[in-house]
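Researcher: Following up on the earlier apo prediction. This time include the ligand. It's nicotinamide-adenine-dinucleotide, with the SMILES given after the sequence.
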Amino acid sequence: MKIEGSIVAITGAGGGLGAAMAQRLAGQGARLALVDFRTDALDELQAALALPEGDCLARQCDVSNEEQVDLVFEEISNHFGGLDVLVNNAGITRDAMMLKFKSGQRQSRMSLEAWNAVIAVNLTGVFLCGRAAAEQMARAGNGGLIINISSVSRAGNMGQSNYSASKAGVDAMSVSWSKEFIRYGIRVNVISPGFIGTELVRSMKPEALAKMEAMIPAGRIGEPDEIAHTVQYLMKNDYVNGRNIEIDGGLRL
Ligand SMILES: NC(=O)c1ccc[n+]([C@@H]2O[C@H](COP(=O)([O-])OP(=O)(O)OC[C@H]3O[C@@H](n4cnc5c(N)ncnc54)[C@H](O)[C@@H]3O)[C@@H](O)[C@H]2O)c1
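Model: Understood. Below is the ligand-bound prediction.
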């Protein structure tokens, strides 16, 4: 797929990784639909990108809300006259241990609210946006590409039962889609980042950050642009389908 002129929708575009993807793709002539529920972050990104009005559409949307998602993807398709790529990037964490016991007494447990919140955004959100985007792509008949952002935590990580389950679900769902959607010429792939230097990670205490880096064979956390670079690769290589690419410096959970 050619990047110049391609229409790319990015959910969670206002965040660290989404904004890096937008920056890299804008620099290569892509036309962007930026989706997030934080309007301040969208405004900031749009100003930084400084793309011509017709080449950049920013829309507030909760990816876990079916009505909002269907409307936004219809609007994106109408605005640009199609949709070539969706990056399902919006995601949240609500970390907690499943159970904490001390002296035979339960101290805490992961709440159902924390479970539901993460599943709603990370799994249902990907399902809803993927379904809406694939419908627009299939209708236009020009094929397309869906990239779902999972995580190395999909293998299971302490304190992240909800997050790990959501990301493992994204992984399996993506394989199903890669088999179902290829008949419409739509490829589906997954990127699983390891620890990437978004603001949250960078604002960690230096000792904690150093401990984390010591676990990574590459000896450092990744850069957001290294994830954006993988999005670019998946756009350019039309033979990659149904695969999960781990960008983690060799870290395995
Ligand atoms: N940063 C990392 O180290 C890392 C590692 C592995 C996986 N990931 C995954 O990469 C993706 C992006 O992560 P990030 O580090 O940039 O996070 P981030 O918190 O910086 O950005 C996430 C964005 O998603 C948006 N969002 C959250 N809920 C939403 C909803 N319901 N509807 C619409 N938008 C919503 C937020 O407003 C935010 O702008 C996530 O899916 C995350 O799980 C990140």
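Model: The pocket of nicotinamide-adenine-dinucleotide is lined by residues 11-12, 14-18, 36-38, 41, 61-64, 89-92, 121, 125, 149, 151, 193, 195-196, 198, 201 (CB under 6 Å).
Researcher: Noted. I'll compare it with the apo version next.
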